[in-house]
Amino acid sequence: MALIIGLTGSIASGKSTVSLMFDDFNIPVVDADKLSREVVMPGENAYNKIVETFSEEVLREDKSIDRKKLGSIIFQDKEKRKQLNAIVHPAVRKKMLEKRDHYVKQGARCVVLDIPLLFESKLTHFVDKTLVVYVDEEVQLQRLIGRDGYSREEAYQRINVQIPVKEKAAMADAVIDNNGSKQESYQQLESLLNEWQVLQ
Ligand SMILES: CC(C)(COP(=O)(O)OP(=O)(O)OC[C@H]1O[C@@H](n2cnc3c(N)ncnc32)[C@H](O)[C@@H]1O)[C@@H](O)C(=O)NCCC(=O)NCCS
Ligand SMILES: Nc1ncnc2c1ncn2[C@@H]1O[C@H](COP(=O)(O)OP(=O)(O)OP(=O)(O)O)[C@@H](O)[C@H]1O
């Protein structure tokens, strides 16, 4: 039986950074953020629904979704966020489960589902173990600003629409403390995978 790990955290806590490390252990990762970009490509159902709901105002000149613009709308309006989630999440879940099952069928010993909203969307039944990538709030804020160039207010807005990462860490089966170097996080991941006996 394959072990399915749900990898989560909060925005800019380091999920993608840790998710890349699984490659070294030949463990496949299904990335919900990546799928959420694929399902809103022009021509897809979710794309059409987004245009219907949010108007052509959220399109770029080439008709693709202007993610920055859509983000600036939904991160400050709970109702609009719910509308977008209702459009995008079902399509992402379907693709995620298809990919999970594909890797399991191929004989993977372990599959990672990288899902930013694992706890918020109550998806823990998709996985056997939950793993949270944790950082202190000030580190999270600085890394988010450093990566995306948001103002402090914009960064807080994005952090505050999710369950605080401290609370997620308290709910998780395991936690990687990503306040230190990437190397330190890598070592924590390696020990955990040994503990969970998924390394060949
Ligand atoms: C609003 C959008 C267009 C902004 O796109 P952008 O490229 O700027 O951000 P990206 O998609 O890379 O998301 C960055 C991070 O924001 C957070 N986030 C994104 N959407 C949401 C949401 N609906 N609620 C809370 N946090 C969210 C996550 O931590 C995610 O990792 C995009 O995030 C989106 O379509 N969101 C709805 C789908 C969703 O919930 N995706 C996240 C999990 S599948
Ligand atoms: N241990 C670390 N030391 C220094 N910088 C780090 C560390 N871990 C991650 N970072 C940097 O912090 C930023 C956020 O990390 P990352 O993109 O992995 O977060 P994320 O949780 O995947 O974010 P999102 O929720 O937006 O997808 C990136 O610029 C990344 O390079």
Automatic annotation (TrEMBL):
Compartment(s) of residence: Cytoplasm
Enzyme class: transferase
UniProt KW keywords: ATP-binding, Coenzyme A biosynthesis, Cytoplasm, Kinase, Nucleotide-binding, Transferase
Entry's EC annotation: 2.7.1.24
Pfam families: CoaE (PF01121)
Residues holding ATP: A12, S13, G14, K15, S16, T17
Catalytic activity: 3'-dephospho-CoA + ATP = ADP + CoA + H(+)
Entry annotated with the keyword Nuclease: no
Molecular function terms, GO-annotated: dephospho-CoA kinase activity
Pathway(s) annotated for this protein in UniProt: Cofactor biosynthesis; coenzyme A biosynthesis; CoA from (R)-pantothenate: step 5/5
NCBIfam families in the record: dephospho-CoA kinase
Function: Catalyzes the phosphorylation of the 3'-hydroxyl group of dephosphocoenzyme A to form coenzyme A.
Annotated family: Belongs to the CoaE family.
Name of the protein this chain belongs to: Dephospho-CoA kinase
